[in-house]
Specification:
Elements lengths: L3 H23 L4 H7 L2 H23 L3 H22 L10 H31 L1 H8 L2 H20 L9 H22 L4 H5 L2
Helix pairs in contact: 1-8, 3-4, 3-8, 4-5, 5-6, 7-8
């Protein structure tokens, strides 16, 4: 039976190895139109975010301690906001309709507001029970979420052209985002109360 800590090391290592391999393969001649035509990275990101939201929501429902429910409600809020942003709903709606206006409003105003609210609430949570929060951040799920945040920051720097790597810059950005969402998914899986039963199968 694999321990949670060992899985917390092996699964992210596999994600990083897959991301590096994918980056190399996508730089092969003729590969870029393939993944762009089928939206491979975008669909994988949406799937990872949806599964992450489900995992955090399941843990929220199973939590009994106040700080734990608060923490996972924030994670649900963040993943839901990111899921709505990545799905790019305004592209699917008719131009000039109120629905498209609402989608633009969400992506331009409400999404940043939700993220700011979640981060502010996280600071309040840390001030309320700092010892428990520090213990969580030092755990395997906490380290994975921290790594996910760093990958998203890296992707943001690429998106704003503050940081430049090998071309195409957009491909590396998408792979970094996918890696971040997979880290979130692994963190959600490892934090579930039922994980020991799953690992013992």
């Amino acid at each position: 039976m694999l321990s949670v800590r060992l899985l917390g090391f092996l699964l992210p290592a596999l994600v990083l190895a897959f991301s590096l391999l994918f980056a190399v393969l996508m730089h092969a001649p003729g590969a870029e139109p393939l993944y762009q035509e089928h939206n491979l990275l975008e669909n994988a990101q949406l799937a990872a975010l949806a599964c992450s939201f489900a995992a955090f929501a399941a843990h929220f429902l199973a939590s009994r301690e106040h700080w734990e429910r608060w923490l996972h409600s924030l994670l649900c809020l963040i993943t839901l906001a990111m899921l709505c942003r990545e799905s790019d709903l305004k592209q699917l709606l008719a131009i000039g309709t109120s629905a498209q206006f609402a989608a633009v409003l969400f992506s331009g105003i409400l999404y940043p507001a939700l993220i700011v609210y979640a981060l502010t609430s996280a600071v309040r949570l840390d001030a309320t029970d700092r010892r428990t929060v520090r213990k969580f951040l030092a755990s395997t799920p906490g380290l994975l979420l921290s790594s996910s945040a760093l990958l998203l920051l890296f992707a943001l720097l690429l998106d704003k052209s503050i940081l430049r790597l090998i071309e195409p810059n957009r491909l590396i950005e998408e792979i970094a985002e996918l890696g971040a969402y997979l880290f979130m998914l692994i963190a959600g899986f490892l934090s579930l109360d039922a994980r020991q039963r799953i690992l013992s199968l």
